[in-house]
Amino acid sequence: MSKGTVVLAYSGGLDTSCILVWLKEQGPVGQIRPREVFIEDLRAEFVEHFIWPAVQANAVYEDRYLLGTSLARPCISRSLVDVARREKAHFISHGATGKVRPDCSCFFFQIIAPWRIPEFYNRFKGRLDLMEYAEKHGIPVPVTPKAPWSMDANLMHISYESGILEDPKSHAPVDLYLMTKNPEEAPNAPDVLEITFRKGVPVKVTNLKDATSKDAALDIFLYLNEIGGRHGVGRIDIVENRFIGMKSRGIYETPGGTILLQAHLDIETFTMDKEVRRIKQGLSVKFSELVYNGFWYSPECDFVRHCIQKSQENVEGTVQLSVFKGQVYLLGRESPKSLYNEELVSMDKQGDYDPCDASGFIRINAVRLREYHRLQGLSSPKN
Amino acid sequence: MSKGTVVLAYSGGLDTSCILVWLKEQGPVGQIRPREVFIEDLRAEFVEHFIWPAVQANAVYEDRYLLGTSLARPCISRSLVDVARREKAHFISHGATGKVRPDCSCFFFQIIAPWRIPEFYNRFKGRLDLMEYAEKHGIPVPVTPKAPWSMDANLMHISYESGILEDPKSHAPVDLYLMTKNPEEAPNAPDVLEITFRKGVPVKVTNLKDATSKDAALDIFLYLNEIGGRHGVGRIDIVENRFIGMKSRGIYETPGGTILLQAHLDIETFTMDKEVRRIKQGLSVKFSELVYNGFWYSPECDFVRHCIQKSQENVEGTVQLSVFKGQVYLLGRESPKSLYNEELVSMDKQGDYDPCDASGFIRINAVRLREYHRLQGLSSPKN
Amino acid sequence: MSKGTVVLAYSGGLDTSCILVWLKEQGPVGQIRPREVFIEDLRAEFVEHFIWPAVQANAVYEDRYLLGTSLARPCISRSLVDVARREKAHFISHGATGKVRPDCSCFFFQIIAPWRIPEFYNRFKGRLDLMEYAEKHGIPVPVTPKAPWSMDANLMHISYESGILEDPKSHAPVDLYLMTKNPEEAPNAPDVLEITFRKGVPVKVTNLKDATSKDAALDIFLYLNEIGGRHGVGRIDIVENRFIGMKSRGIYETPGGTILLQAHLDIETFTMDKEVRRIKQGLSVKFSELVYNGFWYSPECDFVRHCIQKSQENVEGTVQLSVFKGQVYLLGRESPKSLYNEELVSMDKQGDYDPCDASGFIRINAVRLREYHRLQGLSSPKN
Amino acid sequence: MSKGTVVLAYSGGLDTSCILVWLKEQGPVGQIRPREVFIEDLRAEFVEHFIWPAVQANAVYEDRYLLGTSLARPCISRSLVDVARREKAHFISHGATGKVRPDCSCFFFQIIAPWRIPEFYNRFKGRLDLMEYAEKHGIPVPVTPKAPWSMDANLMHISYESGILEDPKSHAPVDLYLMTKNPEEAPNAPDVLEITFRKGVPVKVTNLKDATSKDAALDIFLYLNEIGGRHGVGRIDIVENRFIGMKSRGIYETPGGTILLQAHLDIETFTMDKEVRRIKQGLSVKFSELVYNGFWYSPECDFVRHCIQKSQENVEGTVQLSVFKGQVYLLGRESPKSLYNEELVSMDKQGDYDPCDASGFIRINAVRLREYHRLQGLSSPKN
């Protein structure tokens, strides 16, 4: 390793605390200057630039995972790269292991990922080695007893994995969850929310029970987390496919994100043309995959985000929903831009619509089917 | 209309009761022979040949609707066509209006759809005209007071629409649902089920609380309906896009189907290769669309069903889940055919896996990204 | 039919000549005012607003058809609707039969399509009936003997179908083609062209043999037609699937469009990121289908065109190609925005690239495959 | 490196000749036993098990490349793995560099890829180092003067790349091509072929000029290569995107494959339902990508091949085509299983088809468009 400034993504946990000292040991890194600790409040940025696009996309990985960790990574990387540029650093270092989703966000810099360097991972075979190293070097380590699993928490979600959770048939302990209440102990009465969207993102939430109302992005999200958390919303226990080809078991709780997914799905279907929606949903699947795989900063993800955003221009209106015992129920919706036409669809009114046309429509659709069956010798007695 | 035998899909409701008499009036139809009423129990066939393929597909239309009505139609059509062939009929008649999803299943026969024939729909402008006609012709009609909405019930679900539900912002009345309990009144303790799958379909369900166990297809489905119904599972309120281009509001309850969707998603992800799954999920979106649009009996739906079925060969294993207050929670899963490798994924064991490889993997993935950013003049200070 | 102004898309052929008089006969139409014949030169608009987006998309229907007729229809419709609006017309009429691709472009207006109206098509069973009618009403008709097929010509292509061509195994007559020379009689030396693109559309073409150069959109396209026509480029004989479900045999010649497709494919792959390109190609398939089916003026086609256009921002550069005996050969390309990196790809230089990484990349890609084969008991002797 | 038997994929060229000796030098490899040279004729297997599935798929990578090299790799790997298993080898070695498409086919074995090992690639910086090493060790090397590009030839194609071709704007030298004649010097009269397909693969080819006929898979392919080669068919010059993210320039000639692609496209569209075809074409794009990226032996490629094969059940019939000056022209086709219905499509016959239906079909398709435009305030003067 050549000499130069290293910017380390430091969580304060055991791993990165040890890495900090280990990097210093490696000579090239030189002196650690304590003034250079940057602590930034990225919460509003995280909500507006990362969670909101995911809401617009209805982003769900493998039909279930709402991407809480995946969305946070590019947000952190962006900040990390900013710091590295400002500091004219030569290296970026992080504590991710070789088995988690690698991230391509920092590719401008040389990366030092000790958990992928033999000198490091052969020296520190497990937690005990790290503890011993910490003690020897006077590294302060978290004193809380270690849970028999690992967790990753951010504004959007908490994920739990490894340890006793690695056995995919073991049930999650009741006391695992920190962000959501156990639905069994959740209130016996629902909260009813009204959420207003503009261009596919929430711009206001009101609780109809107590008239609480929020309209700043971060406030909206925090409030939905609070309500969702109170009612035990957004817990899932899944096995997912990591980018690097392993299956891994994860337990997640994403209270606010789960409410928003349901609310956005509803207002989107209400206001968007169905064929546009089909195309957009295909792009969303791609988006979710890209985000999961660490490709937020890629030309294809830029492109897909642009297209999805374009699709949201008319996604505007208000939904009412209730939150209760772990569930979100849509109750109703309205929009100045809906393609829903009550008169057209009504069974009691004929409106502009000629029922005869349906017969022509069906017969034309059947032209092809008839030929196919004719060929197969499956024609009816009559024909 | 030329003369000939008509087979009418008769529900016993007001519409088809009137159509029955009206068809007779039209002369060509001739005498209605009372012996020719066919009542068939299609429940097992419905479950095995229509619901099971939907379970294998994780079939969901527009991310939310589980296709209860759409799956029943080809099952009914098949039976209808069988009767028509046996009876050497010339026409098939049904009471579907021009605004609902037209069905291409019966295209071998000439269809008489009175609600799409001006002579009929101009004569019967609304319910009152039908009532009057029924009275005049001595047609017995349902005496139960008409709910201010219409519903369609089958083994898989009940759908509610039109009437007061046509206003998309109106909330569903509390007493609307017939198949599921209100989650607020559901039991305060969960049921825990164990469901075993083979080739992607459930072959056994056991209730761990009372050891109830079912292993015939119809029994399994009925039992899941019972448990799901008891806990208020599977209620949704959506606006969907009909085949004919209208948006329409529907409320559905699909208790057993909702449990199976969650269970199958889990065992499938656990046992199926991730890339196969991606391709298969694309086919499933197509499948759902085809079923919704009435193309069950089409070459493309045959093809897609074949491919999906092929993908299910190794979808085998058992999931445990709890059902509580409207929610289904996956608790754990095991399988003799899982691609999950506990040792491989473990954070505590290195196994066969060399963490160095992850760095090479990332760097190769970044080759393309680097070139892209180089071109955009976005290179880092260092490069 | 109620009274009101009709705008008729009039080609001057036998069909629309007769329709003109027949419409007058129908009473409601009233007087035909001869001053109201609008002849508009839509050529530049056709090239810039319809052909260019197709070039950006690499639009090809069912892998072979370059959509010459399909692209012209929305261009004509737009003009027709403009006239109809200006004239405050109530109806639009056209001579399309019921078996050709119906077009949804004019849906604001009531359409009078005589070939789909029983009164008309039952009266005029064939060409002879029309001829007789024309004679009786003093309608001047084309005197040229009718070819035993029908053709549709525009700036982009000529299509030939029906008549003797309806037998799909019959060969096209040698003298069929009007826009391209028979390759057997084409020049024995190629023309070499240089085409420059900006944002995915050609902005200049130069013939390296004689230095002819064009840079206005219409001129470029006309010149490519001339060169392509001279060398017999762009002839195809296909069976295609019409929107309405029939298979139909068509013979097309699209000289300039074929050259542009090859040239654009080349410059696009040269300048566009590969993952963006994959997504964009999926959108292009959709675009081609929409255009073929008559949905140019639809929300989904608007959306797709927007996305495709976005993808073209960096599609810029120059290709050289030769045109000879029906073929287009790419010879070379250069671009200020290419992602091609000669040093990176070179076999003789190592550049920034570490060959070790490839091994890590492969091993990570194989993690999943190894698990799959392990499960199948297919492991190697060694493992 | 641990000791054990190595199986080397040996081409006889300079690289693998040196690798052979170098491996021996590395100690662990031990003695090279000369009896163990396996030369196998894989030609028929290559055609039947690799080229035929590609023909069924219409496999084309990035719209242009017919995958000649990519298809040969799994064929070679299969044989290599067979030998390695038979010989109870521990390693497989090959001469591929780090910049070419890595192949995941041999993942059961430990791979020794010297061009990705620093000890090797740092020692042999270029061709000269290898030559010197060869001389020193008495390794016989090809005496033919080295062309200023590299080539890879197999039964299906020859590819040319690197060297002077690395400049993407340089034209290919006239004397580059070895498998196809220069179209300028090709015969002045076409050959006309008749190719018969069953289940999507060619089962017979007949030259209508001289009645030559072939019906064994390998013979058919060789004959098509001969005819295509004679007429200069299948030359392309492209820039493609490699799996590892680089753009690379390649020149290919694929005479027989190009004829088959055109012939198969035609018979497939003639016999396959259009909606099946759309789904199948999506799978084919995936298939081409997988093959290109070296994933022939993967669960997803198995799955996709199975689905594509299923789609070919009715792809049966005969096409006539002419081959001339680099071009393939379809002339006609017939099939006992075509969905083409001459009577149905005829403009002169009405057949079973009611033109009225087309109007209903259009109006229903326009329901959605009308709502969309209504919302945008774009309604016509009349509405």
From TrEMBL, chains A, B, C, D:
Residues annotated as domain Arginosuccinate synthase C-terminal: 149-372
Enzyme class, broadest EC rank: ligase
GO CC annotation terms, alphabetical: cytosol
Pathway: Amino-acid biosynthesis; L-arginine biosynthesis; L-arginine from L-ornithine and carbamoyl phosphate: step 2/3; Nitrogen metabolism; urea cycle; (N(omega)-L-arginino)succinate from L-aspartate and L-citrulline: step 1/1
A GO biological process held by the record: L-arginine biosynthetic process
Coiled coil: none
Pfam families from the UniProt entry: Arginosuc_syn_C (PF20979), Arginosuc_synth (PF00764)
Statement: the UniProt record of this protein carries the keyword Cytoplasm: yes
Protein name per the record: Argininosuccinate synthase
